[in-house]
Design a protein that fits this description.
Helices cover about 0% and strands about 60% of the residues. By secondary structure, the chain is mainly β. It is globular, with a radius of gyration of 24 Å.
């Protein structure tokens, strides 16, 4: 399940809530998780959960964002970008070494590990993973059930109007889904306006899951989500950015040419923290409540891309190097130093030593 540095806000500064509400048991050793997500930037409405929500496993899709750029949302909820050099190419390259191929209305994407995802007109219809062949069965243009062989793993329940009321899992478990009215707020000519209502999930209930959601607007006509009667989240309708989560007030800034936001938050008692994943500079910057600044630097190119190379810590105006690593041409760690300890890769595994001590195997 995707995670965020600050619980409830993603790296772009949007309100983002993740919940695991169940799992599909394919066999005794392999399961598929059911993750639901709310994101304040989402302009679409889930047929299962309503506006701003997504039920990742049932709504996995691949969307063409630009002529040569595609975004795939995996059944787990993770997003992955694919690209090509020109519109004539049918084979796409993807993040994490993934590949994809376009064949008319069908796109298949696969990883080196053997996982394969099949899409028809953008919607998932099949998945091969963990040695299993999973089918997503449609009925009348809607997902009816997910199968493994002849066994139904989950069946979508609908009322006489076709609205989703729950999910019936193999083994007898049921996840009840209730929806109600969610205010739709629009930013028009510098003002927040209540433009109507749209459906939004109000309750998710199963044997081990019970979540309640309530939708309102605050005094500034900003959308407000109440989670389990105890947590209030407010976001800006102009850009979807988080404004408040409980005791924390958020501020976001978007540097030019960097997709992620610089996120700062202040608690009611005045404590202030900040975090920024600078993809352009290949570093992550965190300032904690005690004022310490931690900067993680990553390799930006080649086989070492994304690997941690240097960490510095700054406090009281003094910067110190607390971690440094070197890798071979294949991206394998060969040496690292951390807080005065030296680590080296050898035939017997990692060895560590202190500058004043004898080297030890570990």
């Amino acid at each position: 399940m995707p995670t965020n540095h600050y619980d409830g806000v993603d790296r772009f500064g949007y309100a983002s809530l993740w919940y695991k509400i169940g799992e599909l048991r394919v066999d005794d050793k392999f399961t598929l998780p059911l993750h639901m997500n709310f994101n304040s930037s989402r302009q679409t409405s889930s047929p299962y959960l309503g506006a701003g929500w997504s039920l990742a496993l049932l709504e996995s899709q691949i969307v063409q964002q630009e002529e040569n750029r595609f975004r795939l949302v995996e059944p787990s909820g993770w997003g992955r970008i694919f690209w090509r050099k020109n519109a004539k190419e049918t084979v796409l390259d993807g993040q994490g070494g993934w590949k994809a191929e376009i064949r008319a209305d069908r796109i298949s994407a696969w990883a080196e590990c053997g996982t394969r995802l099949d899409y028809y007109r953008g919607r998932i219809v099949g998945m091969k993973t963990g040695g299993h062949d999973i089918q997503f069965v449609q009925n009348g243009g809607h997902l009816a059930e997910i199968r493994s062989g002849m066994r139904t793993l989950v069946r979508v329940e609908r009322d006489v109007n076709g609205d989703v009321t729950g999910l019936a899992l193999d083994g007898g478990e049921r996840i009840a889904l209730e929806r109600g009215d969610k205010p739709r707020v629009e930013y028009v000519a510098g003002k927040n306006l209540l433009a109507g209502v749209e459906p939004g999930v109000t309750r998710v209930e199963a044997a081990k899951v019970n979540h309640a959601f309530e939708y309102r607007v605050d005094s500034n006509v900003r959308p407000l989500l109440v989670v389990d009667a105890s947590r209030e989240i407010v976001w800006n309708p102009e850009d979807g950015r988080m404004v408040r989560d409980g005791e924390w007030t958020y501020e976001t800034r978007n540097p030019e040419n960097v997709g992620n936001a610089e996120i700062s938050r202040t608690a009611e008692n005045g404590i202030r923290e900040s975090w920024f994943l600078d993809t352009l500079g290949s570093k992550e910057i965190t300032v904690s409540a005690n004022g310490l600044k931690l900067v993680k630097n990553f390799h930006a190119h080649g086989p070492m891309r994304g690997l941690l190379r240097l960490v510095t810590r700054t406090g009281n105006g003094v910067e110190e190097k607390i971690y440094e690593a070197s890798y071979d041409e294949k991206g394998q760690l060969i040496h690292a130093t951390y807080e005065g300890l030296n680590f080296s890769a050898g035939s017997n595994g990692m060895r560590y030593s202190h500058p004043n001590q004898t080297t030890k195997n570990h």
